[in-house]
Structures are given as C-alpha cells and as structure tokens.
Design brief:
Order of helices and strands: HHHHEEHH
Strand content: 5-15%
Radius of gyration: 17 Å
Number of strands: 2
Oligomer: single chain
Shape: globular
Number of helices: 6
Structural class: mainly alpha
C-alpha cells in the first residue's frame, strides 16, 4: 500500500502543515517561505543576500525574488554593511521586526496544534533533527 511508504507520509504531512501555516500567516501578508527568510535575516548577524540563500539552502537565483517581495511589502531593506562598504546586507525594518515576532508566535502555535495528536511533539521534532544530522 502506498500510504505506508515513508516518502508518501512525509510528503503529505508536510503538505498539511504547510497548508495550516499558510492559512494562519496569510492575514499578516506572509507565507512559510517569507517567514523562513525573515527568520534568517533576524538571526542577529548581518547577512548578505547570498548568505541568506546559503543558510536557507535556497537557490541563489530565487532568493532575490523572495527578498524583493519582502522589500516591496516593507518587511526588509538592503543596506550597506557597516564593516565593508562594498557589501550589502539584508535587514529587518521596524515593520519586519514586529511582523516577524507575530508570525513566529503563530508558527509555533500552528506547530503545537499540528503535533498535538502525537502526545510528544518535541520528541518527534528531535527525531527528525537526528535524521537530518542536526
């Protein structure tokens, strides 16, 4: 039976989680990919566009479109690096910071609700991280 294959199960679990997160984040003008970029940018260290792409394991050609969209909506801005004027970094705006904080709370709540049927959602998360070698 197809439904007992790990790949099938993981794919469909991811689709359901993505759907729940997309629905919850939509009123804030974000989706899961946007939130991932905001999370990388909010990491505390100034990152270039290419460093954001590397951190997220996203193709460097598509990160520009993602950051452009966030910049158009006022969530991020590109700035000259204070350490190296030849380098641009991506930074959260004030709106980006407040939106990110709200979106992170929403993401965590969606994940808690999503994992609730397992009883020990944190164990499941840890097991997945172990599979990824993290």
């Amino acid at each position: 039976m197809v439904s007992d294959r790990l790949g099938y199960l993981l794919k469909h679990v991811l689709a359901r989680l993505t759907e729940a997160q997309t629905k919850a984040l939509a009123p804030h003008g974000l989706n899961g990919r946007d939130l991932a970029v905001l999370s990388a940018v909010a990491s505390g260290e100034p990152l270039s566009q290419l460093e954001v792409a590397s951190r997220l394991r996203v193709d460097r050609t598509s990160i520009g479109d993602l950051i452009d969209g966030l910049e158009d909506r006022g969530f991020v801005e590109r700035r000259r690096s204070p350490e190296d004027r030849r380098r641009n970094v991506v930074a959260l705006t004030e709106l980006g910071e407040s939106t990110y904080a709200t979106a992170e709370r929403i993401r965590l709540e969606v994940e808690r609700e999503f994992l609730a049927p397992l009883g020990d959602g944190e164990r499941f998360r840890s097991d997945l991280q172990a599979l990824l070698g993290e």
